[in-house]
Amino acid sequence: MMGAEFAETLVDAVAAELAGQGFVLRGGFMFSPDEAAPMGPAGARARSVLLVGQAGAGPWPHFQRWRSGQPAGLSDPYDRFSESVLAMVAARHGARAVSPSDRPYLPFQQWAMRAEGLRPSPLGILMHPEYGLWHAYRGALLFATDLELPASREAVHLCDACLGKPCLNACPVDAHTLTGFSHLDCLAHVHAAAGQACREGGCGDRNACPEGAAYRYPAAVQAFHMAAFAGLPGEGA
Q1: Cis, bond preceding 166 (omega within 30 deg of 0)
Q2: What is the mean pLDDT of residues 128-148?
Q3: How buried is 111 (Cβ within 10 angstroms: 0-12 exposed, 13-18 middle, 19+ buried)?
Q4: Which of 5, 149, 152, 177 has the most Cβ atoms closer than 10 angstroms to its Cβ?
């Protein structure tokens, strides 16, 4: 088993390398012996996982620099950038890098809730006590060894104290409700002339949440991700 001192050094090194590209180490955990963990770097079941993501738009300037050196027409460039960073860090530390877009899909949201003790907002995005809705998980690093990490505790869920639920009242077509998300209504609105504000400034419901305002994505970043979500002309995420 990996000693606690070495594990802490490894985790710190991973966090520092990720920070150099604007990403954040979002916690992790050890898989229990009786669960069906995914394959690790050497073909055996992984024993530990570290979640990688972002808080606010930290990776954006690094992504733009990376994108300037890539061929025109590259599909899903933000995903490709994220994967390249994770692959580099994984190679240096003997890990296997995985992405939310990998098939078969891995349970990233369940992993994230387990690693950071978060719960979903009414929009489905996990609510973070500091970042609000302005964060994301971009991948994970799977290790064949035990990483002795602090046990996760349930974070304060800000949605519990929010009585007005502005995130359910800003969308012109009421795409988000307590019963779910109307994907087709949202897409129809974003593609229509009336959806210009969403195309240029992001989801109205997400922007209506007052939490984590310091981490709110700039309008250009929101427009980029909206174009990816809605299949609009331009580059996808």
Answers
A1: no
A2: 96
A3: buried
A4: 149
Q: Greatest CA span in the chain, whole angstroms?
A: 59
pTM of the model: 0.92
Concatenated DSSP letters for 198-234?
HHHH--HHHHH--TTGGGPPPHHHHHHHHHHHHT-SS
- The conformation of residue 23, written as its DSSP 8-state character, comes to -
**pLDDT of 165:** 96
Q: Name every residue whose Cβ is closer than 8 Å to that of residue 89 and which is 6 or more positions away in sequence.
A: 14, 17, 18, 52, 95, 97, 141
Band the pLDDT of 229: cuts 50, 70, 90. Answer: very high
The Cα 30–Cα 220 span in angstroms is 37
How confident is the model at residue 2, as a pLDDT? 41
Q: Which residue has tokens 């180490």? A: 25
Q: What is the pLDDT of residue 149?
A: 85
Amino acid in position 224 = F
In DSSP terms, which residues pair with 54 in a beta bridge?
136
Q: What is the full DSSP assignment across 136-204?
A: EEEEEEEESS----PPP-PPP-GGGG-SS-GGGT--TT--EETTEE-HHHHHHHHHSGGGHHHHHH--H
Report whether pLDDT(215) > 50. Answer: yes
Strands 48-55 and 135-143: antiparallel
Q: What angle do CA 207, 15, 104 make, to 5 degrees?
A: 70
Q: Which of 192, 194, 201 is nearest to 221 (CA)?
A: 201
